[in-house]
Amino acid sequence: MNKEALKNTIAQLFASGKGLLAMDESTDTCNKRFAAAGIPQTIEMRRSYRDMIVTTPGLHESIGGAILFDETIRQQTKAGVPFADALIKAGIIPGIKVDMGAKPMAGFPGEKLTEGLDGLRDRLEEYKKLGARFAKWRAVISIGDGYPTIGNIEANTHALASYAAICQEAGIVPIVEPEVLMNGNHTIQRCFEVTEKVLKLLFYKLFVYRVVLEGMILKPNMVIAGTEAEEKDNTDTVAEATVTCLLQSVPAAVPAIAFLSGGQAPQEATEHLNAMNKNYKGQLPWTLTFSFARAVQQPALEIWKGADSNIEEAQKLLYQRARMDALASRGEFTGD
């Protein structure tokens, strides 16, 4: 493992307030979004969609890295250039999703465990040859009646730590994503309690598995009430709860925290990120930025609708949303 190489990759990813674009939706997830927008669910249409994203002019101004799916990293742009090469040429570092998805955890009704450790070392070697310099593994923690259980949190943090160690051995920066889901009617206080517990156990596991904290990226949820909660908290309350939770749970050695949007509306996610960086400027030991998927892409997808005639307009909107999030990662977003 080359610690300095890992640190250099992270520095490049987040230079000048940039963030990550998560364009790693699985085939099923991408097809569901296409169906909702009235777009044919075909491999060529998925390729065209990713082509529209990757070839967006000026995207590198706000996006330092793009997380790809296995299908995408093997595809090419309309001009015949592999997507990873096209990203590199545009000044964006390619990454890759390596987990095999969250599956129902045996003996734990309502909870899931992410799979994919088997064969990971060999897959990373191949992905590195295809151009990937960082990877992502997502664990999902649900809040409900009687869960999350400590058994589920233990199993998922074990998998995250094992994955991170294997990535660093391969010279690939691991994005560690322990997502506490927004689904449910829980309060922001309940989300805080669960997120804190998950993060503290996660960093214990990372210590046990000898993961170099300076060579990893944390991708957590924001601390926010459930989607079905009766009471919705204002932007400053979400920012305060999230920053407080992170300060109590995440070591200062971690260089960057790139939030997932978790189903928040694009503007909402941007405003929350901006408030954290604006209200707590100078108090944060890590870079706070974004690793959004829908919060950046969805408005452009709805404009594109699979038609070549809409590409230019969709790309302008994609560029704009990414620009807003980059401003928010510096606390400079004004809403204008």
Task: Please give a quick description of this structure.
With 336 residues, this protein is of the alpha/beta class.
Write structural notes for this entry:
With 336 residues, this protein is of the alpha/beta class. The chain has one domain (3-328): Alpha-Beta Barrel (TIM Barrel). It is built from twelve helices and ten strands. The strands form two sheets. The chain has an eight-stranded parallel β-barrel with strand order 1-2-3-6-7-8-9-10, surrounded by seven helices. Strands 4-5 form a two-stranded antiparallel sheet. A hairpin with a 7-residue loop joins strand 4 and strand 5. Helix 10 packs parallel to helix 12 (311-328). The chain is globular, with a radius of gyration of 19 Å. The termini are far apart. The mean pLDDT is 96.
Shape: globular
Low-confidence segments, given as residue ranges, are none
Q: How large is the share of residues in beta strands? A: 5-15%
Rg computed from alpha carbons, rounded to a whole number of angstroms? 19 Å
Number of strands: 10
What is the helical fraction, as a range of percent?
40-55%
Order of helices and strands: HEHHEHHEEEHEHEHEHEHEHH
Kindly provide the name of the CATH class: Alpha Beta
| Biggest sheet strand line-up | 1-2-3-6-7-8-9-10
Largest sheet: 8 strands, parallel, barrel
Q: CATH superfamily, please?
A: Aldolase class I
Could you say what the CATH architecture is? Answer: Alpha-Beta Barrel
CATH topology, which one?
TIM Barrel
Q: What's the N-to-C terminus distance?
A: 45 Å
Average pLDDT reading:
96
SS field, number of helical segments: 12
Structural class: alpha/beta
User: What is the number of independent domains?
Assistant: 1
